[in-house]
């Protein structure tokens, strides 16, 4: 599925090439391949997209209302599609960095050294939200409490108001609690969180904030404390959770409840089911 995401090149491929270059430079990571090599913006619209993509990668919560307004003005109905392309350009390189640090890259990154069969027809948001994210959500190697801890950490780091208001039912039934989740903010000092949970949170922080400089000791902790299937799922979970950056960037992350939290179930099909 990563290969399918990498192969997306809608329209003439310029915007895809542009955001892939911008995000990679911002992250100091190898860029995703592009059907069209773009050295930089060549129009006002491309300059607006490049500025938005850079801030999306640096800290999505700091995107301003003015930046959103300019993006909508330049892109109109294609805004959501382009922001989804920015999400791909921003996070697939992080996944590559994580899997390579864990020593699992060759098994999951076939597009790195192989040719890419470019897909000019598939809508990026359709592939991401209807296929990729549910496929990751269907993975079940990682225990639900660890998965929820990592999800909530990502929610806080990206300041997604909706994600912070949600609680996954399977994790709650498996021992998750507000007391435990309250320790996520300062997890290093927690007496409730296990060494395994802290290792997962350190790894998630690394992918979110310093993907080009993942600490060897953190990767070693994950390799020693998790099976390969769990570690791979953990990596993909961080990317799945980071899809909240699309909503946050567009100011569409309002919670469904006015106060407190809302319980939901991530079902066997990888779909979110609210109570």
From TrEMBL:
SUPFAM superfamilies registered for this protein in UniProt: AhpD-like
Record-linked InterPro entries: AhpD-like
Superkingdom in the source lineage: Bacteria
This protein's name: Carboxymuconolactone decarboxylase family protein
Lineage: Bacteria, Bacillati, Actinomycetota, Actinomycetes, Mycobacteriales
């Amino acid at each position: 599925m990563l290969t399918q995401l990498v192969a997306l090149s809608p329209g003439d491929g310029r915007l895809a090439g542009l955001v892939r270059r911008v995000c990679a430079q911002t992250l100091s990571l190898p860029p995703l391949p592009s059907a069209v090599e773009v050295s930089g913006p060549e129009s006002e619209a491309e300059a607006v997209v490049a500025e938005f993509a850079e801030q999306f990668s640096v800290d999505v919560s700091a995107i301003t209302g003015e930046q959103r307004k300019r993006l909508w003005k330049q892109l109109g109905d294609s805004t959501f599609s382009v922001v989804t392309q920015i999400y791909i350009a921003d996070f697939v390189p992080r996944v590559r960095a994580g899997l390579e640090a864990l020593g699992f890259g060759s098994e999951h990154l076939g597009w790195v050294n192989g040719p890419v069969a470019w897909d000019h027809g598939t809508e990026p948001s359709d592939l991401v939200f209807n296929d990729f994210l549910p496929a990751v959500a269907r993975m079940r190697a990682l225990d639900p409490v660890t998965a929820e801890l990592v999800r909530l950490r990502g929610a806080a780091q990206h300041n997604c108001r909706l994600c912070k208001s949600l609680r996954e039912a399977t994790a709650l039934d498996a021992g998750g609690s507000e007391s435990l989740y309250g320790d996520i903010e300062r997890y290093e000092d927690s007496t409730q969180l296990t060494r395994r949970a802290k290792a997962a949170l350190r790894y998630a922080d690394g992918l979110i904030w310093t993907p080009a400089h993942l600490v060897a000791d953190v990767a070693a902790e994950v390799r020693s404390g998790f099976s390969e299937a769990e570690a791979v799922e953990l990596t993909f979970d961080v990317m799945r959770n980071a899809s909240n950056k699309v909503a946050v960037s567009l100011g569409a992350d309002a919670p469904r409840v006015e106060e407190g939290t809302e319980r939901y179930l991530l079902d066997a099909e990888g779909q979110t089911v609210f109570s």
